[in-house]
């Protein structure tokens, strides 16, 4: 029962995040969706899948594939976050001292 209820809660969270992503693009009148938001939503979807997954009925290869997807998305998120941090530091260093 816990798996079903928690899976439904995560489904609602995923839908809210997706809705927020779409609305933010529409309000800004831009066609760009932030990469981090998409990656985090995909990680949330995979976390939901792991929670509702019945490990006794699932093939081990499927679990390994899902784990590999989580690791790949985590690595991409780390790379994007690291690049954003470097871009922010570079922008702060390139500003004139009066604007800091």
Task: Tell me what the structure shows.
With 100 residues, the chain is mainly alpha-helical. The chain contains three helices and no strands. The chain has helices at residues 2-28, 35-52, 60-94. The chain is elongated and about 60 Å long. The model has no long low-confidence stretch (mean pLDDT 83).
Q: What's the rounded overall pLDDT mean?
A: 83
Strand tally? 0
Distance between the termini: 54 Å
Residue share in helix = over 70%
Q: For the report, how would you describe the main beta sheet? A: none
Poorly predicted residue ranges: none
What is the N-to-C succession of helices and strands?
Answer: HHH
- Put simply, the count of helices is 3
Globally, the shape reads elongated
Helix/strand structural class: mainly alpha
Topology, element by element:
Blueprint: H1 2-28, H2 35-52, H3 60-94
Helix pairs in contact: 1-2, 2-3
Summed up:
The protein is mainly α.
What are its keywords?
single chain, 100 residues, mainly alpha, 3 helices, 0% strand, elongated
